[in-house]
Amino acid sequence: MLKRRIFQSRRWLCRSFSSIIHSEPVRVCVVGSGPAGCYTAEKMLKASQQAQVDIIDRLPTPFGLVRSGVAPDHPETKIVVNQFSRVAQHERCSFFGNVTLGSNVSLAELRKLYHVVVLAYGAESDRSLGIPGENLKGILSAREFVWWYNGHPDGRNLDPDLKSIDTAVILGQGNVALDVARILLRPTTELATTDIASHALSTLEESSIRVVYLVGRRGPAQAACTAKELREVLGIKNLDVSIQESDLHLTPTDEEELKSNRIHRRIFELLSKAATSRPIHAGLNQRQLRFVFFRKPDSFQESKDSTGHVSGVLFEKTVLKGVGPGKQIAVGTGEFEDLKCGMVLKSIGYKSVPVDGLPFDHKKGIVPNDKGRVLSDTSDTAVLEEGLYVCGWLKRGPTGIVATNLYCAEETVSSILEDLEKGGLISSTAAPKPGRDGLLNLLHDRNVRTVSFNDWEKIDSEEKRLGSLRNKPREKLATWNELLTATSEGTDHST
Ligand SMILES: Cc1cc2nc3c(=O)[nH]c(=O)nc-3n(C[C@H](O)[C@H](O)[C@H](O)COP(=O)(O)OP(=O)(O)OC[C@H]3O[C@@H](n4cnc5c(N)ncnc54)[C@H](O)[C@@H]3O)c2cc1C
Ligand SMILES: NC(=O)c1ccc[n+]([C@@H]2O[C@H](COP(=O)([O-])OP(=O)(O)OC[C@H]3O[C@@H](n4cnc5c(N)ncnc54)[C@H](OP(=O)(O)O)[C@@H]3O)[C@@H](O)[C@H]2O)c1
Which of 70, 217, 232, 268 gets mutated to test ligand 2 (max ligand atoms within 8 A of its CB)? Predict the structure, then answer.
């Protein structure tokens, strides 16, 4: 199904490159400079010689989660920014950072200014568990923790207490959960030469955390992570990994599931191997990673010292029920067990948030759409929101790797091209759309200081210079003030 959709989008992209001629440029605004936004801009520029693309982002820095999500010890994943930089530097493309849709400019305004608006602003909030005690101190979302160690300016003040606790519980077993476990457990000498934020490195150097629990509501045959990432965490130097062998018992449905899913089969094999190859003598100060399966969080426990701090998680044991492979869900058994801890990281998924005037499917946490075309609502009678498109996590939900957004962008761009060819987006009778000039006038009137791609390159150079002093690829500027100070005093709109 997915392959067929990709094939159809590609066919459309090839067919329509030069066939659409308009009397004025096709003015496109892409909101968000993460992978979805950058791939959309790239495909749009390539497909239509008349497209003029402006990318806006609320941060002074581009590239979304490639900068603020991808782990510091995954430098190879970040190489894609070279490709994204070439897109932003294209003669028909501009980047305007420090511009927030929803506060600096509204969706209605953007739609008036541009023929096409593509929303690719990701998922900047968190799913919640909705269980008692969720607001206790020491309970953080993985998103906040990741922002903190990756130098996102909104994560700078998180200041997690890793010094007075010895145990952390991570809820969820996806790749983000594995990332945060690895950052907590990996020797800091190995992190020191990455682009990890310096405030995070100092805190991790003083960490007294010795035990990390990775807790899943389902079993080892359903774990949401991928093999490379699991191998990496299992391979951390001098780490004692434990998995209860009884959790590795497979039901016939699990076996069916594993037969048809190579990734899950590989994960299960790795976990089985890890369960049987524990070191016989765990050292006194050795760090431990404990996988816990078949437990769903029921409530958080508060410490007795009235500080409002978390002291543990109460879990309900689960069994899997479901009609078939891949559809098994965790069901509570009525049996409970707690795990004492000083910190909880909820890694149960990100969540997108709507802006004013944007149709939103609150149940799925996405913008309702048909192949990237925004729909007015989620009903069967929904109509298309003309000129409005969506891409990336905001379109599909918070799953998929960087490359997934390339296929997603191809689909959205081929929808745009189809609509352009039908003549719906640029009318010969309507007044021309002001596009970039209109946006810059509006932002100027509101005293919004935009950050151009040239300005970002100044931040980039400064970070690389600071990094070279510490044998790091870069030292991220991690406050709004530092970031904006590093840009030029005057506003440069040349790229
Ligand atoms: C912690 C983590 C680690 C990951 N590691 C990897 C990895 O190693 N390899 C891999 O392939 N994939 C990885 N991924 C997945 C990958 O990062 C995502 O698939 C991808 O970033 C999603 O792209 P996006 O453009 O939809 O969203 P994002 O990358 O989140 O980009 C959204 C952009 O929109 C901007 N924005 C938000 N709100 C507004 C607003 N109101 N106005 C203007 N701009 C706004 C943001 O600043 C951001 O730049 C990781 C994901 C996470 C969460
Ligand atoms: N290195 C990489 O390539 C990399 C790194 C990081 C992220 N990513 C990608 O980014 C995407 C997002 O990753 P993610 O880890 O945030 O999401 P994810 O892969 O969807 O994992 C979410 C985890 O949370 C659990 N969960 C969800 N709701 C829960 C609840 N109410 N109670 C208990 N557990 C709950 C899920 O369990 P169930 O399975 O039972 O639902 C799952 O274990 C993924 O596609 C991932 O592959 C890639």
Answer: 217
